[in-house]
Amino acid sequence: MPTPHRLVNTRELIAGSGPAAPGAAWRLEEPVRDLDSNVIALPAGDGIQTHHGPGLDVLIHVLDGSGTLGTEDGDLPLRPGDLLWMPRGTLRSFTAGADGLVYLTVHQRKPGLQLQPRRPDAMR
């Protein structure tokens, strides 16, 4: 059984450098877990195009920079310290501001692909 331990210090992760390239700057990779989590870094002006979120709720915490969350109800400015709830399947987009945007995501772990053996009658 795993014990509690430090995964990463987010201040150290983002200190001074800002996002250099888009994507996950950190991922939760513990082998036994019920949650998934990432730190996403977007350079200035970069973004994530409009899409429908996954079939699960996502919690987002803005760690650094600024930007805009696009929603069906309009744009929501983002700043460090903002804590956002993204209901499952909702329409969203992200655009990083002049200093880039770094945020933490936390959500239930998506079930992995499970291969099932074929039933004998399905092989005909």
TrEMBL record:
List the protein's name: AraC family ligand binding domain-containing protein
Keywords for this protein: DNA-binding
InterPro entries reported in the protein's UniProt record: AraC-bd, RmlC-like_jellyroll, RmlC_Cupin_sf
Q: Does the keyword DNA-binding apply?
A: yes
Q: Which residues form the AraC-type arabinose-binding/dimerisation domain?
A: 58-109
Taxonomy, superkingdom:
Bacteria
